[in-house]
Amino acid sequence: MPAYTMPGLMTGQNTNDIVKKLVELERRPIRRWETENEYAKAQMQIWGEVKNLTTNLQTKTRALVSFTAPFATKSVSSSEEGVITGEASRAAKSGNRALEITEMASKHQLSGVAIDTDIRLPEGSFTIYSGKSKETVIFPGGGLPELTQAIKNMAGGLAETSLIKIDKDSSILTVTSVKTGKKNELQFSDPNGILKLAGLVGENKAGLENTNQLLSLDLLNSKVWEQAKFKKSETETEKLLQTEEGISIKPDTAFAVPIVVTEIKERAFVEIEIVGEAPAVMELGIGFEKEGSVRNKFLPISKTESKYIFPAGDYASEKNLTTIILSNAATTPVLIKSVTLVTPPAPGTAEPVKVLQEGKDLKIKIDGVEITRETNDAIADVLEGISFNVHKVTEKPVTLKIHVDHAKGSALIKEWVDAYNELMKFSKEVISVEKNARISDKKESDDSKAADISKDFWDNKSKSGILAGENSIQRLIASLKTTANSYYPAPKDNGFKVLTDIGISTGAVGSNWEKIQDGLLQIDQERLVSVLSENPDGVRDLFASDPNNDAKMEEGVGIRLLEILRPYNQYASGIVTSKVKLLEESVAGNNKKIKEHESHLISFEAKLKQRFLYMEQGVGKNKSVGNYLQNNMFRGNGGE
């Protein structure tokens, strides 16, 4: 376009510059919408952080109010370091117990004799026994390395094997039980002589027969068993009856019948033989002595041909059998021919050549009572609520200490306080108001419509929180403060009613008032450790308690706090979600306006250029006419 100048109004200005200035003036709404979008996006980020912080506090609070919160976790240690370690549950009683470790549980270790390293062993099979388990190894034949590998592959859960080379011609095979304890000692059956040729066991012997002991039942001293279930047991005419064929058990009755005390060997079982018809399944049981008290085991047993087999050795090995429990839930009498305690022989038929170490049980004394266990680890059935590991024998009695482990509870509370303070501090910052800040979209000294609104807007906005005046955040702050400073009912007399009782406050007595007003929580660590050690249940009840005993936590700091936080971070209709959705809609609306206005500016600019072109053409034409008239008038005057 030619660069003409316009006389008068725009003398000396380029037409293109004029068009650009007019277009920029027309662009002003876009700058406003873009600034609004920047503001909306900044708000969305703030709301996103509010959701993150409320969710974090919610998570930490749930950890405090859960049934598994570790306030009352107890730890186990010994007065002599390294003797015992373990953990105790809430059920364990705190205190000290006399402890003595006289013998550690050990593995059964065997060694063969030296044999030719290049020996070739025949194919066949052999069986390895350990405790109640057994594994049969199918050996395809080969040398000692192949035998070692076959045991690892097929019986690795019972035995560990290794091959030791003595010299260039001789090797020794060693085998160690995987499990510790006397009952888990290794035994072998070697019908094909493979292990004998490998130098591990001696001659394989023929298996022995079962030992059968006929039990005599004392019917006169029998006692009713589970009368609520077997209702006719108390009726005199329905008692156990001894006949020539056996013992008759009437329908809907059950009895515990004494016998002469008899030791139950490993793998032993009670065989109950019947005469005539009987149910496919009957509930039968035994009574036995264990650690000074009488225990019972009563369970359904399936019939095999004419017998019921009760696996007594699985439940009471090495214990004394005192009672046989008989029941009949059928509609017709059951006739028992005999009750026999059957003890199978040891499964091994080939004795090891050399025992390096016998399998031993752990032997411990607690308060003078001697106890044996098969293992040194995870012993959870000696003291209620306690699981411990034994690491070494003691030369003299030591003290077993069971005490509250406050570290876990203290760490949990510290994480909760940190999450609370982060949310409180952030919330106060984003709604803070600077009294002298003036949120304006133009500079005070510039009334021009072309003024840039963004810089001054954000300069002023930085003097106040970006969510200044947001009621929902103000309510959140107020609710947090109220929750942290409220009283709560203590379900027990020695319970705690306020957070200050356990060392959590907004500041110690005499602290700066402004800091106290900030509402940030502080922890008196010494006080917190003290209450967690002395009354951990009271601390837990302060955060969550069940005043109605309906198995539902309804009171406490944590419960109240969860109710406050729930509306803020609900996924579908939460406060944060709704705010972000509105802001996204606003941004989308502004983007639509910007796009439409940009289309308008294109046509607006084109129209301006066209109009100025016409104006310039008109000015040029007028100038030509003026020159023409001036020249003609000059000539006419000269001619006169």
From TrEMBL:
Which InterPro entries does the UniProt record give?
FliD, FliD_C, FliD_N
Asked if the record carries the keyword Coiled coil, the reply is yes
Q: Which domain of life is it from?
A: Bacteria
Answer yes or no on keyword Isomerase.
Answer: no
The Flagellar hook-associated protein 2 C-terminal domain extends over: 359-623
Question: Where would you find this protein in the cell?
Answer: Bacterial flagellum; Periplasm; Periplasmic flagellum
Q: Which Pfam families match?
A: FliD_C (PF07195), FliD_N (PF02465)
Q: Which residues form the Flagellar hook-associated protein 2 N-terminal domain?
A: 12-108
Keyword annotations of the record: Bacterial flagellum, Cell projection, Cilium, Coiled coil, Flagellum, Periplasm
Q: Which family does it belong to?
A: Belongs to the FliD family.
Q: How does it assemble?
A: Homopentamer.
Role description: Required for morphogenesis and for the elongation of the flagellar filament by facilitating polymerization of the flagellin monomers at the tip of growing filament. Forms a capping structure, which prevents flagellin subunits (transported through the central channel of the flagellum) from leaking out without polymerization at the distal end.
Protein name, entry field: Flagellar hook-associated protein 2
According to its UniProt entry, this protein's organism is Leptospira vanthielii
